[in-house]
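Team,

Forwarding the record for the chain on the shared tracking sheet. I've put the sequence and predicted structure together so nobody has to dig through attachments.
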Amino acid sequence: MAREYQKFASFFFALLPVSLGAGERIDFNDQIRPLLSDRCFVCHGFDANTREADLRLDTPEGALTEDKHGITPIVPGDALGSEVWLRIISEDPDEVMPPPDSLRQLSDADKALIKRWIDQGAEYEPHWTFVKVEKPKTELANGHPIDQIVSEKLKQEELELSPPADPRTLVRRLSFDLRGLPPTPEEVEKFVSNPNDESWRALVEHYLADPSFGERMAWPWLEAARYADSNGFQGDRERTMWPWRDWVIEAFNKNLPYDDFTVWQIAGDLLPNATFEQKLATGFLRNHAINGEGGSIPEENRVNYVFDMAETVGTVWMGLTFNCCRCHDHKYDPLSQKEYYGLNAFFNQTPVNGGGGDPQTKPVLPVASGAQKEEEEKLGNQLEDIRKQLSGTEKQPSGDQKKWENTQLATHKSPWSILHVKSAKSAKGQKITTLENGTLLATGANPPNDDYTIELSLNEAPLTGILLKALRHPDMTKEGIARSDSGNFVLTEFNLALRSTDGTTKPVKIKKVQATFEQGSLKIAGVLDKNPASGWAILNNNAIPTDHAAVFEFEHTLQPAPGDTLVATLKHESKHARHNLGHFSIEGTSQTAPTLPEDQSLINALRTPSERRTKAQHQLVNDSYGDGNPQFAELQKREAAAKKKLDDLRNRLSKVMIMEDQPGKRKTYILAIGSYEQRGEEVEAHTPAVLPPIKSDKTPNRLDLAKWLVSPDHPLTSRVTVNRLWQKFFGIGLVKSPEDFGVQSEIPVHPKLLDWLAADFMEHNWDYKHLVRTIVTSRTYRQSSSVSSLQLERDPNNRLLARGARLRLSSWMIRDQALAASGNLVSTIGGSPVKPWQPTGLWSEVTFGKKKYAPDSGEKLRRRSLYTFWRRISAPPMFFDTAKREMCEVGSTLTNSPLHALAILNDPHYAEAARALVNRAAKESSTDPEAILARAFKILLSRSPHPEELGILLKNYEQALPLITEEEAKALLAIGETPAHPDLPPITQAALTSVCLSLLNTDESLTKE
């Protein structure tokens, strides 16, 4: 009976397509893939872990191949012979697909499409996203390529391009799109007086050359890059990343080719002889939030930062939802969990340790302000002049350097003397050699952890303490003192025992310890607590290449007997692998209350044979030898003073977080459910198989990845980029979901246009301003936004582009417009973030009173919104439609919240701007209220008011006059720092201000027509 029903159902669906255009060829990507993706791929798609019945419908191999039971899911050309079709039309609840309880049911029209597709041959096509960009052919003789492509599509829908918008509207539209600011009245009138194509192109070039262009383009990039001025999480400590933000602005203004813009931000530090700007650009990746909360786990944090970097790059340049693969294969797209961690591996090599610590977690780049750059250059020149004088001055008038060295050693007196080494052993196979100067050198394979046992001969002199020296050696990392890749060591335990000639051993108790330097929590006292999590380390900028020492004062003075041996045990049991001491010595003293010796660097260098000295030791000896010439010595003092000034300046510089790779390779693993603790298979850095292979003759690194993203064969980067630019201008991209170009994404309404723009972008060497110019000089861009009834019926959302875009301005543009119209806008580019007014108590509330907001004053209150201080846990409240800056966001958000209207009517920013607009209008016209309102209208809306509009404004003004008291007027005029107009009575000015506030809140003011 079931099969009889299926025959009837098949007959019914064979009739149904007649009303759907039975003669048309079914397009797989446009009509079938979206159906299968939405209804079927959850259970029969890419993810093997959730795949039912071992059936794949996302590939032709899975759908068209006979299974082990002899059943073919889809038989091309034969729906009735296809098991998939029979399941779709089955009446049996155990057989029908999708199952009855599924929320993803097929309509009759859906089923008819699938049947026709099968009967037409069930032809699969690769998803357009993963196909190389090819430039569609256009007939240039027919006009602008964009207009030609759009017109072809409109013709199919029986529509056509709308006429151009009026000149004033066009200037206003272009100014907001390219600068984020309203046009000046002069710019408007200049174009209106001669509104031809040549004038339009000249206006486009004028705006492209305006420094505000970089600021306008930077805002959405900062949102995508999750830029903020604080770390996020509960602590939300302030950070310094604004120099990277300024670099972005400059890159857009200088029209840095987008391929370089990409490579520098992902891997600028890996470029040969990387410049300051190229290193600074990598701050893009370090913009992620940083968890400094107490109790957070550093390794978990570090792994999350790597996740964030990989997913951000995946979204910004590829428009793919890689985050869906963190725990499993993608449900819809051909992206596996292994490929996700292969992408992670590119970013897993940074030395970031995941600790909260300093908000500027290393690696960092010192960045100088303008004044600091001048001072740095001045001090650098002074230091260079002194060094030139030094190079021309004889160090030592007479004498022999070797003789001088021997004299220094002979006359040197120290309470410490090196103890004779009887034997030195490593528990893990290192070779510990006693050098001729009595120091010890570890060589051979460097194990993760190791214990050293050193036996030392004692004479009969009393012993009150031991001096452990960590000494520089040319064989160590950075010519330093340890064997690790970082040059650091972690000594977790140091103990001493006195062994008598009869073999008995007695521990030596330590009373007090001190060291020349201690790294954070890894203090010298940690070597005595028998806790491998503590210990002594010395990493701190330039501290590694310097000799270090620790003094161990005994609780009781030792009185050795003849033949006694002191046994020293040095343990390296830290979780930081291979952080073993490399070159060291052990000295003794009979001094009461022994202390750290004075700087022994010179004596240590002199004791080291010349051929084994490090570069720093050679420099120290040579410089010290030169003290015999008073003139030379004086120049050395001047050099030291100049160098100290320069070093002090550089230590005061802001530190910006950047990228660099650590010396050793960190392994990357697939992490079950994304947990840092659940390591699975080890993976190497690699890219998804569905995309062109990365070109590298070695394991690829971030630089290889960055170059791969902007290679001509890559199908995504150019498409994703032009789509987001289109979104800036039209409110919605040619692909509706800028963050998702995968199988679940909408098919572009204008795929030909998307590919033409993408190909043209690459052909013109990724010239971003060329891309902008191409779009805004088209008729498509310049259309009127007025909508006809036919357009509203056929294309309510303007996806076909039969009219211009009418969009509400973003909240940051609305604020900047108010500042610009008022004449208060400070046009300074770049610099540290500013704090304009905001309601009191917001920071205090979310930080439990720890952070209090103090508004700035003066010009800082009138900077562009781009420079507003952005606290992650309490974003600036005047911005209603922006990204949260906690993770990458590339979508376009609009708001019509009534709260925004209330803010514009009451916020001090707008109250002061309205008052300043009155002042400006009076200055540019007269103190007559009618003239002021007419001029304010024109400044703000780029046109003169119609008589009836001006009449309404005057009526509102006249109605406000008797309602405002003298005290209320003074209170309104006291808001902000703009002085009251000297020639306008307070009540008059207050009434005019209230009308201008309403002007700021009109649809025409808040909308880009």
